[in-house]
Specification:
heterodimer, A: mainly beta, four-stranded antiparallel sheet, B: mainly beta, 0% helix
């Protein structure tokens, strides 16, 4: 397996524009996580899915953020409208559901909102 | 509130100088504790999972230990290639949510 695949790797957009980040989890993993990482706040969990169903979205900063998982092999994180304070690295991760199991991370998307 | 606190925030060591990184946690029912390594510009890479107090895991120069309140990542005779940010995370029983600490930036000087 190629691991968790995220696209794009880098995104630069203007304030107010819509941004869509994409993720393909590892085949067979039941859980998918979206994280945001900044120097100030570290790695923050935004939302996670179990079997394509959102379980906890309490980390989503505000209504401008939304996430979907239409099937087991694809998820999106959308920001509309984007703001400069959304600039960060966004990671997607996936894991099995077998006791305490580690999550495997993608390479991340570095988002810059100007 | 469940939380994970890592210390120190940053650590500089000479090559060969052994040390330990600390991860203190409070969680309502621990399913597992994870250690990750993160290199600049990359996603976190899994190192260890610990499930219960007293458990230890080793990999090359790294050894992770776990008590009921904290975990240590011991690094023995480190090399410059061990330089990275080391992240600790806990997974809680009731909903499998994973909570990360802010990490320790480790720099090994040749």
């Amino acid at each position: 397996d190629a691991g968790v695949i995220q696209s794009p790797r880098h995104e630069v957009t203007e304030m107010g524009q819509e941004v869509t980040l994409r993720c393909k989890p590892i085949s067979g993993h039941d859980y998918l996580f979206w994280y945001r990482q900044t120097m100030m706040r570290g790695l923050e969990l935004l939302i996670y899915f179990n079997n394509n169903v959102p379980i906890d979205d309490s980390g989503m900063p505000e209504d401008r953020f939304s996430a979907k998982m239409p099937n087991a092999s694809f998820s999106t994180l959308k920001i509309q409208p984007s703001e400069p304070r959304d600039s960060a690295v966004y990671f997607c991760a996936s894991s099995f559901r077998v006791g305490g199991t580690e999550a495997f991370f993608g390479q991340g998307t570095r988002l810059t909102v100007v | 509130e469940d939380q994970v606190t890592q210390s120190p925030e940053a650590l500089r060591l000479q090559e060969g100088e052994s040390s330990s990184l600390n991860c203190s946690y409070t969680v309502s029912g621990l399913r597992g504790l994870f250690w990750y390594r993160q290199d600049p510009g990359k996603g976190p890479e899994f190192l260890f999972t610990l499930y219960s107090a007293g458990e230890e895991k080793e990999k090359e120069r790294l050894k992770a230990t776990l008590t009921k309140k904290e975990s240590f990542l011991h690094i023995t005779a480190p090399k410059p290639e061990d330089s990275a940010t080391y992240l600790c995370a806990v997974q809680r029983n009731r909903d499998d949510k994973i909570i990360f600490g802010k990490g320790t930036r480790l720099h090994i000087l040749p």
